[in-house]
Amino acid sequence: MTLIVEDGTAKTDSEAYASVADFKTYCDNRGYTYSSDDTLLEQYARLATGYLTQKYTLRWKGYRVSSLQALDWPRAWAERPGLLGSYGPYPVYYVPTAVPQEVQYAMFELMRRVATGDLTPDLERLTLRERVEGAVEIEYNPNSLPVTIFRTVENILSPTLKANGGAGMMRLARV
Fold first, then answer.
1. Can you give the residue ranges of every domain in the chain?
2. Other C-beta atoms within 10 Å of 16: how many?
3. Which of 2, 61, 79, 168 is the Cys-Cys partner for 91 at CB 3.0 to 4.6 Å?
4. Using CA atoms, how far apart are residues 66 and 149, in angstroms rounded to an integer?
5. pLDDT score of 39 more than 80
6. Taking a C-beta distance cutoff of 8 angstroms, is the pair 22, 49 a contact?
7. What's 164's DSSP letter?
8. Greater confidence, 130 or 112?
9. What share of the chain is helix, strand, coil (3-state, %, to 5)?
10. Of 112 and 1, which is predicted with more confidence?
């Protein structure tokens, strides 16, 4: 089955934020290796996009441009940090008819990770210390998050995400 790529029109059946050809260009430009099997790469693209949806749906800035679109992007009113608008200090927004390059790059990084393992591995309790002298003694860290955080993906996506993950946050607007 051919991969259906979101092209900025808020498709109802899109499966990925970028094409396999875009992924190959990304990898070639960075010296990364990848599979020559396009069918396999399409599967990786679907898995990576699924991960982005599961992990970041509630954290994206802005709003979906259509209630019927299959994926989270394109989005309207998603502010781009660090840029001045044409009206002085007012914000600049991501184009609501496109998927930001940061989202595509994050998808590519996740595709690379799918090739080497599961994006959502089973979680184990984090160990502080293990000691073996006759009897096994294990001390677990009660304060650590027992999740894998893909720092490269987090860093790539940071401009497109809400502060504090959006959990428990309320938007205020001046009327």
1. 20-121+150-166
2. 26
3. 79
4. 30
5. yes
6. no
7. G
8. 112
9. 35, 15, 50
10. 112
Identify which of 73, 76, 94, 92 has the alpha carbon closest to the alpha carbon of residue 84.
92
Q: Which amino acid is located at 77 in the chain?
A: W
| Cα dihedral value 55, 60, 65, 71, nearest 10 | -20
- Greater model confidence, 149 or 65: 65
> Is the distance from CB of 81 to CB of 61 less than 8 angstroms?
no
Query: Which phi and psi angles does 138 have, rounded to 5°?
Result: -125, 130
pLDDT tens string 40-66: 999 999 999 999 998 899 899 999 999
Distance CA 46, CA 3 (A): 8
Query: Of 55, 27, 30, 28, which is closest to residue 111 (Cα–Cα)?
Result: 27
Q: What is the pLDDT of residues 8-34, one digit of tens each?
A: 999 999 999 999 999 999 999 999 999
